Amino acid sequence: MSFNLKVGDKVEVIAGKSKGTVGKIIKTYRKENKVIVEGANLVTKHVKPSAQNENGGIIKVEAKIDASNVMIIDPKTNKRTRIAHKIDEKGNKVRISVKSKEILK
To answer: In the chain, which residues have pLDDT < 70?
Structure first.
């Protein structure tokens, strides 16, 4: 199984309650095949008062999403795309957008 996503990639959620949400990947969990996308899959969390948060209360936090439920956004066309892998002239493996054939950073 190949894990094509990296922190900072702009992705769109394609399934679940946050379908259609576009955001950047905050954190990846390779072994679990999950990612956290900013602004997507928000869950309510009850927080006790602490040194950092004096009041506590109810807050909204992003939860993990399965990596199969997000697709990367092509930087050139701004549409969803698949990812291909290619060896460049220096011998490095790079990620390439299937739609626009552009290298993804």
So the answer is: 1-2
**Residue 97: strand pairing partners:** 83
Q: What is the CA radius of gyration of the chain?
A: 17
Distances (CA, A) of 49 to 42, 45, 54, 58: 21, 13, 5, 11
What domains lie within the chain, and their CATH numbers? 1-73 (2.30.30.30), 81-105 (no CATH)
State pLDDT tens for residues 67-85. 999 999 999 999 999 999 9
How far is 23 from 38, CA to CA, in rounded Å?
Answer: 5
